[in-house]
Amino acid sequence: MDRKLEKAKEDSSLDNGEDTTVSNINSKRPEYKEDKHAAQNPILAPYHRSMEEIEKMPVIDKTMTVCPECKLIIPGIIYKDGDNVMIRKYCPEHGWFIEKYWEDYDMYMQMRGYSYYGRGFDNPNVVSENKGVNCPFDCGICERHKSHTGLANVVVTNRCHLSCWYCFFYAKEGEPIYEPSVEELRRIFRSLRNQKPIPANAIQLTGGEPTMHPQIVEIVKAAKEEGFDQIQLNTTGINLGLHPELAVKLRYAGVSTLYMSFDGVSAKANPKNHWEVPLILDAARKAGIGIVLVPTVIRGINEGELGNMINFALNNLDIVRAVNFQPVSLVGRMPTRLREAQRITIPGAIKLIEEQTNGVIRKEHWFSVPYIGGLNKFIEALTGKYGYDMSIHFACGAGTYLFLDSDNKIIPITEFIDAKGLMEHLQNGINEMEGKGYLARKAIAIKTLAGMSKYIDKAKQPKSVNFLKLLGSIILKHDFSTLGKFHMKTLFLGMMHFQDEYTYDIARVEKCDIHYAMPDGEVLPFCTFNVFPEIYRDKIQRQYSIPPKVWEKTHPGWSYSSDKYIRNIKELTANPLYKKTYGQMIDYFALDVNGGKHVAGFFNEQFADEAIQLNK
Amino acid sequence: MDRRDIHNKPGHAEKLAKESSDEADLSKEYMKIGDALVRMPYRKIKMVTFTNIKKEELKDVSHAARLQYRLLLLDAVIKAWVNYAKGQISIIYNPVGADNIREKISLEDLISFLEHEGVHIDRKNMKERDFDYIEEFYSYAFNPKVIREHPPYGVSEEEWKVRKTKLEEEAKEAKEKKLEKFREWQKKYKEEHKDILADMQ
């Protein structure tokens, strides 16, 4: 047995010899039993039709995709199957593939309307003479890409203290270590800030587990010095919970947000960091770092806790800024029936949220990400200064804002704003401003702003917000400080569905704005980096990695297992913070003002001891 | 020859073992750029271009793209482009004999790989040259040239020509102001957490 684990076991088995330690956390794939009646199950039925039936179904869109087996670029037919939007593709060598694309036809058609092309790069890192026809295999990023970098991911290490069964990102036993130095990372940061016409302004330091890089504080400092406004840390949070002083140092260096894995409220749904979350929230509170909770949603695993996770976020609204659900991307080989059973798409998760919150957050409350781009375009047209595009593909992301009013009423933003009408109104303004001088554009903006009031229902808006006034100060005075206050009282709910070989749509990837900056200077969209790791992520990182023997030699005492976190459940559950976090939650959905019904699966852990009394 | 054949070639396992061993000369893997010491896996490598490839051998655009994907699966191939329209394949690769510790491949093996994929190479239509990985690839990717210009939405090209320099200066000033504001915030924050941040710059 590993010495570190052995010692942890000795330390934790104090009273009755019971072993309360866990190592290699989250390493076991949950068991799956095949549904023998899948063809009758409405969720799985679209996978069980004959090709004859499928080919008769109405075609909605045509796109290009890849064969999951041999990666041949082949046409993809997007078609309607009842309420589902499906994609089918045929490879001459490997036959038919059918996959769910979007689990709500009406929502697909509505969100499809908010699509626009962004500006991409004026100084692309590679220029391809193939003019995009070999996309996604000559990526780097090329001049054909249609969105600039909205969020830049930079891998700072591939070491991780967990061993999640579905993760391909961390170095397993015997694999090389990728851990660039601060100087190397600074070159990457500088290159991202040099992008034209829109320099990357938000960065996410990721891994592996980024806090395992011994110079993570210096890395954040370097990113800040290079000019990034928004610095996120994509983390399990565990190291920050266990070492709260690290959270303070990171905040001081410039970290604005923890982008934290959070797969459920219960221990069963969230084996990754359930026991440490109370410590992490406390550390972030003391350090003043905002948290985005990031659940990976897998059908059959944690899809029953979506509403509960939102309620958890509302309970910690002083520190939690957003919940960004990520319907699982099923990259890599797995049994077909398992893939079908675990598949969930953005509308699938949205509909579950509607059910689980008893209709407080409904599907019509959500908007697609390019929708927000309309507002940004309007501000840019007025000021003549570059702003951020939100030009991703409509099927990649959705969002909404929840407002928790002074009487604890939960108000989704689209409850008091006619989103569609407002966007059309703004687009008319943008069209009118096109090519006019600054003063003329300002006059049009004032006129447009004055006409916006009819899209805002003042009677339904939260008592503490004058939304029209807020928009006015953003658009005319460019005063974003009010927006900051607004964010503090709201919870952003996001959905981001990354692709895999089965759902792959090249029209989506060419609009991607979540990019990875690589050590060789290239920039890659999320879904080329991660869906084809054999030619991008793993290949390039391996080129810039340290061979394992050399790493061991230069890091005496290090081993793969010594990196692993060993959890002591007994100690963590005994902590008063644990009891406070999971034992004293309010169910906001059960309040009369929100309909009076419990959010699905709501529970408060029952603790008998005195610790809970101390916190009351 | 496919990828597995290359990995099963005599000496391949020994090569990998050497890379993972104490014998690997890591000093070759770093270089100084400005003040920074950075990892540089390649320096002088090769680029080969095959032209006049029969279109029926490339089959169609999709199969040409897949051939490009398959070439990229080879560890020693750094970049590859298969251009169906021009009947051309260009490959940047790490040649046998290159002074680095990374996976290598010979031109003969590359040609056999293409033969295995159904593409026959006529050596008269082959051009090989030295390729400077640092100058021609790495440096460009880190500092790519501007190939076009998009003015902000709503702004005409004429107005943009006039305002561009001013806006660039304003952006530079704004960046400095933001950093200054951040430093002020840091001072206050340090005061609140002086027990933890006493030693931090």
Q: Your description of this structure?
A:
The complex is a heterodimer of chains A (616) and B (201). By secondary structure, chain A is an alpha/beta fold. Chain A has a domain at 41-102. In chain A, the strands form 3 sheets. In chain A, strands 6, 7, 8, 9, 10, 11, 12, 13, 14, 15, 16, 17 and 18 form a 13-stranded mixed sheet that branches. In chain A, a hairpin with a 5-residue loop joins strand 17 and strand 18. The two termini of chain A are 43 Å apart. In chain A, 51% of the residues are buried. The model of chain A has no long low-confidence stretch (mean pLDDT 91). The radius of gyration of chain B is 25 Å and the shape is extended. Chain B is α+β, with helices and mostly antiparallel strands. In chain B, a hairpin with a 4-residue loop joins strand 4 (77-83) and strand 5. Chain B is 44% helix and 17% strand.
| Rg from alpha-carbon coordinates of chain B | 25 Å
The helix content of chain A, as a percent range, equals 25-40%
How many β strands of chain B by DSSP? 6
Helicity level of chain B: 40-55%
Biggest β-sheet of chain B, characterized?
4 strands, antiparallel
Q: Largest interface: which pair? A: A-B, 79 and 68 residues
Overall geometric form of chain A: globular
The tally of strands of chain A reads: 19
Coarse shape of chain B: extended
